[in-house]
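User: I'm curious what two different proteins look like when written out as structure tokens. Can you demonstrate?

Assistant: Sure. I'll show them one after the other, since each token string lines up with its own sequence. Here's the first protein:
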Amino acid sequence: MISVVRSDAEIESIFARAKELGNVFDAHWCLQMWSGVLAQNLGVILRQHEGGRVEGAMGLLIAPALDAELESREIFWFGGNLALLRMAESWSVDIGAKRLVLGCPENDRYPALARVRRRDGYKLIEHMYVKEL
């Protein structure tokens, strides 16, 4: 089952589960940031769960693009399956977004994820680099 996260307790459960799965998130910062995002309707967290257990989640922000179109941008995604992606696409359409922008981590899973993205109609538009400062 997939649902929209609405409360701080739900946000906390998302990042607690992410930590259990080996993801590195600052839970306190994530709670503060996502509480604000949700309160101002600037994004959404979608939670995939089974029997009360979080199986995956995706956080999306609403963003204006340089071509004056609205986009939704994936900020985090862990666990879950393609049903979570389909819900993100549906939510994006519902808010009037013309595009959904997804990341694809540069790791051993990259080739398989890239194939799935292309198969689903996503196009590679840029690579991003990060430098710790």
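Here's a second, unrelated protein for contrast:
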Amino acid sequence: MNDRLRIIVVALLLPAASCTPEHEWSNPFDPEAASLDFDGDGVPNGEDAAPRDRTCGRTAADVNNCGECGKVCFAEHATASCTGGQCQYTCDSGWSDVNGDLGSNPSDGCECETEDPQTDVNNCGECGNVCGVDHKGDTCEGGSCGCEPGWSDPDGDPANGCECLNQSEGSGGEVCCEAANGDICCENAKGYQECEPSGGRGGPYVLVPAGTFWMGCREDLNDSWNCGSDETPQHEVRLSSYGIDVHEVTQAEYKAFVDDTGHRTPSCDWEPVSTSDHPVVCVDWNDLRAYCQWAGGDLPTEAQWEYAARGPMLDADDYSAFPWGTNEIDCDHAVIYEDGNGCGTGGAWPFCSKTAGNSPFGQCDMAGNVWEWCLDWYGSGYYASSPLEDPDGPASGSSRVLRGGSWDGRTQDARAAGRSSYDPTYRRDRNGGRCARPGQL
């Protein structure tokens, strides 16, 4: 009898090897097994302290042979593991073990853990469809995330993400897409979508995603800056997505509005040719609102303005006095009263002259340069009763809110929490503003 036949006969006479959690082969007499590498670690089975058998796993941690050959750990919408020869399951994010029997009855799988798939951003329309990723929109409305401006869902399957419409390249090499309304949107230096209006009305704007922040002043985190009595209490605010202009409305932009509509011109400092890149001033609340509506938007609410100035906040302690993230201000960051009006120039500067002071979303001149009109009526005690979601100010009043400070004002006024107000018919050489736009294009 030759050696090969002798090995086969001996193997047949031995009792069948059982698959156990120990490190051994179920057929150790097969000479071919010693030369192969079943676990793919580069070490032949004959030299490997813990090889994986061709038939079943050799340890109690194999999810395909957990404790016994062929016992597979699997449950729908769960991550499976094998510990000590027992299957363990952890439901995926947004899913839960509603019946509490996943360990004993894994065929049930995990069930969707959402109260309202029409609005749940983590399970929008269906479990696991997360808004705000893969260029999907940030909010869930009617069971759909939608897509970022310029991105579409051609196959109708939200799980596959969105695709860029009419892709082009921006001046800095960034990817740009065309929004449904024709606006061209590109990612800015801060990582947010910055859009250029297609109809020639108004300037560029940044799309601010829906989010939560803490509005108002914190005396204990404000260093030497005093909180105004109308800036407290600091309170949580949730905002829907919206757009807001990158810069204050310029004289050139306002001239296009005047030429198109016949609206009255500003009452002072109106040189739309020689100072076309300067912010328009000497416009009252009604003038600037008319311009914003002509451009396809409206004035920002006070909450929208402050969120744009502050940016996303981790919590109420994630606080700084100024848009650039510190409690210090100087002429490197903002056009303020320092060495004289307008950092020594006597007035407002061209837009975006102080890019070191840009806000976290990418807007410039949120502090200093000119005061900015907001949509809200002013209420000194409004913060004590402000609603949590999308507050838009008191129902009535005698003055409208102004934000941001100006080229001749106190640096205290340029803080993100700083508030002021004026008669909505008041026009002067330090009042201008910027526009807000819908967040879904």
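A detail about the second structure: The chain is about 10% helix and 15% strand.
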